[in-house]
Write a structure and sequence with these properties.
It contains 5 helices and no strands. It is mainly alpha-helical and 85 residues long. It has a domain of 59 residues: 434 Repressor (Amino-terminal Domain), CATH 1.10.260. Helix 4 crosses helix 5.
């Protein structure tokens, strides 16, 4: 029918990290990957101070950065090879 509204299809995706009111924590970002803050920042193109701000809850990553972090979480080697090549 023309002009009728369809219900939105949604699904819940559970993430290993949370944004917003809770802090974006280092155990996921650095320790889980076995990297120091400096190494994680250098490998994935972040400023180390920005990582510290996320950890302390002073700043929340924007939507694009959150998506990038999810890709790092799911396939870190693909991100590394894309950044190198």
């Amino acid at each position: 029918m023309r002009g009728s509204k369809r219900p939105l299809r949604t699904r819940v995706v559970r993430s290993r990290f949370r944004f917003g009111t809770s802090r974006f924590r280092r155990p996921w970002m650095c320790a889980r990957s076995g990297l120091s803050q400096a190494a994680f920042a250098a490998r994935y193109g972040f400023n180390r101070r920005t990582l510290q701000d996320w950890e302390q809850g002073r700043v929340t990553p924007d939507a694009a950065v959150q998506a990038y972090l999810r890709v790092i979480d799911r396939n870190p080697q693909a991100v590394v090879s894309a950044l190198q090549g």
